[in-house]
């Protein structure tokens, strides 16, 4: 069972850069539900979208899978023995817990939980790829190349689902929506100090893009069908179909 996220509940002498280590693993479900507006709806939606796009005898990729919430949603919704989910993350702590969680479910669709850098993955026979709040943690210089590789490895009619925190089009609007997001976190029990310390920890670690930057990457990769299928405040999820 997930513990309550109190990582930043006490004043820290020095706020270290955020990483997906063991202490985050222990509280991750609580952390993400209290921090990301619409997270549960996105996870549910990924499963429903998988029903539409996962093709028989194909591969499904969950990139930056963390504890495998998207993987579970896909396996529960699609349930095809002929397909395999490849759940990939570079955090040893996340992968260890993800394997334990996935082994507790008896779905027909098998899963292969892999510790690896998603930039090193060669996509083959892919019909559905998920980047659920993952791309924003990669250096900007690596993002286009990854989207290009995904497009090249997708089967015709396959889909990429990309969820991200967004930067708004104007500085004032961005500042106001960030304030609204912080209010959301306060309503979920986080203190001003927790919010401030978490924001400091994520600075230069989570670097969001605008919607237009994401759309431009889709275009450059070769996608001609893409749109926003979900948004709550400055958190959005896109779908791009080959």
UniProtKB/TrEMBL annotation:
Keyword list, A-Z: S-adenosyl-L-methionine, Transferase
Residues given in the record as S-adenosyl-L-methionine binding sites: 39, 64-66, 89-90, 117-118, 132, 199
Its EC number(s): 2.1.3.-
SUPFAM superfamilies: S-adenosyl-L-methionine-dependent methyltransferases
Catalytic activity: prephenate + S-adenosyl-L-methionine = carboxy-S-adenosyl-L-methionine + 3-phenylpyruvate + H2O
Cross-referenced InterPro entries: CmoA, Methyltransf_25, SAM-dependent_MTases_sf
Pfam families from the UniProt entry: Methyltransf_25
Family stated for the protein in its record: Belongs to the class I-like SAM-binding methyltransferase superfamily. Cx-SAM synthase family.
Function: Catalyzes the conversion of S-adenosyl-L-methionine (SAM) to carboxy-S-adenosyl-L-methionine (Cx-SAM).
PANTHER family referenced in this protein's UniProt entry, alphabetically: CARBOXY-S-ADENOSYL-L-METHIONINE SYNTHASE, TRANS-ACONITATE 2-METHYLTRANSFERASE-RELATED
Protein's recorded name: Carboxy-S-adenosyl-L-methionine synthase
Lineage, opening ranks: Bacteria, Pseudomonadati, Pseudomonadota, Gammaproteobacteria, Kangiellales
């Amino acid at each position: 069972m997930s513990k309550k996220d109190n990582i930043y509940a006490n004043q820290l002498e020095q706020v270290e850069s955020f990483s997906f280590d063991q202490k985050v693993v222990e509280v991750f479900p609580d952390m993400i539900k209290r921090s990301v507006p619409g997270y549960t709806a996105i996870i549910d939606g990924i499963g429903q979208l998988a029903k539409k796009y996962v093709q028989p005898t194909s591969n499904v990729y969950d990139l930056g899978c963390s504890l495998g919430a998207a993987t579970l949603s896909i396996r529960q919704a699609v349930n095809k023995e002929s397909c395999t989910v490849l759940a990939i993350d570079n955090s040893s702590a996340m992968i260890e817990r993800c394997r334990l969680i996935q082994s507790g479910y008896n779905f027909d669709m098998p899963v292969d939980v892999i510790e690896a850098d998603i930039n090193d993955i060669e996509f083959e026979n892919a019909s559905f790829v998920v980047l659920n709040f993952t791309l924003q943690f990669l250096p900007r210089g690596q993002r286009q190349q990854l989207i290009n590789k995904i497009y090249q490895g997708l089967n015709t009619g396959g889909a990429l689902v990309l969820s991200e925190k967004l930067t708004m089009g104007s500085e004032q609007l961005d500042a106001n929506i960030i304030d609204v997001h912080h209010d959301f976190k306060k309503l979920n029990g986080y203190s001003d100090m927790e919010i401030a310390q978490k924001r400091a920890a994520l600075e230069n670690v989570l670097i969001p893009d605008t919607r237009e930057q994401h759309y431009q990457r889709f275009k450059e990769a070769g996608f001609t069908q893409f749109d926003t299928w979900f948004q709550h405040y400055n958190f959005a999820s896109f779908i791009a179909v080959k």
